[in-house]
Design brief:
Number of domains: 1
Strand content: 25-35%
CATH class: Alpha Beta
Number of strands: 9
Shape: globular
Oligomer: single chain
Largest sheet: 7 strands, mixed
Length: 184
């Protein structure tokens, strides 16, 4: 079951996020800030997936106009005004439930919400080193196109100062694939 993320889900989202992405990926303060970036015009673009009363996935998405590009973004290559682009921050599904379409359902829910917020496209930085490069494959299957690869995207960032990558440890050298999904 897909439903809108609310603060009552925060503890489970933090737990799953840190389990899948590495310790320090999310905490209460960072999640509260991410959550607020997803709300615009009283529409929430953040979602969770539950099965049998257990949180099995989540998607965090910034509403168009609620985020700023940074050195990891290449807006000149998008061909779309930044203010009309949402940011797909994170899509996470617990391992036993991967491959069952949950990520796609979470993405569809966020696209629907961000369209109502005024988005015509979404940008994301996909984790190239995800198991079997599943993040990039999933986003490509959804219709996204690769804009640019960014090595060392999550290394010593202000966004995740205590992040411990599940592959690299504290000195993360994973690559982010900046991908653009234009909505139909």
């Amino acid at each position: 079951m897909i439903q809108t993320l609310s603060p009552e889900h925060f503890a489970d989202v933090i737990s799953l996020g840190n389990q899948v992405h590495g310790d320090g990926y999310l905490d209460k303060t960072s999640l509260a800030a991410l959550y607020q970036k997803g709300i615009k015009d009283e529409i929430n673009a953040n979602f969770v997936a539950h099965q049998d009363g257990k949180l099995i996935g989540f998607r965090l998405t910034y509403a168009p106009g609620n985020w700023q590009t940074d050195k990891w973004c290449t807006p000149d290559a998008w061909g779309i005004e930044h203010q009309r682009v949402c940011y797909f921050k994170c899509n996470t599904v617990a391992e036993p439930y991967r491959g069952a379409g949950i990520g796609g359902k979470l993405l569809s829910a966020s696209i629907s919400a961000t369209k109502r917020q005024g988005a015509i496209a979404g940008i994301s930085h996909l984790w190239k080193q995800s198991p079997n490069n599943s993040a990039v494959k999933y986003f490509t299957k959804a219709g996204a196109m690769l804009i640019k690869e960014h090595p060392d995207r999550w290394n010593d960032t202000k966004e995740h100062p205590d992040y411990i990558c599940v592959i690299c440890g504290a000195d993360c050298h994973c690559t982010a694939c900046e991908m653009l999904l234009i909505f139909k």
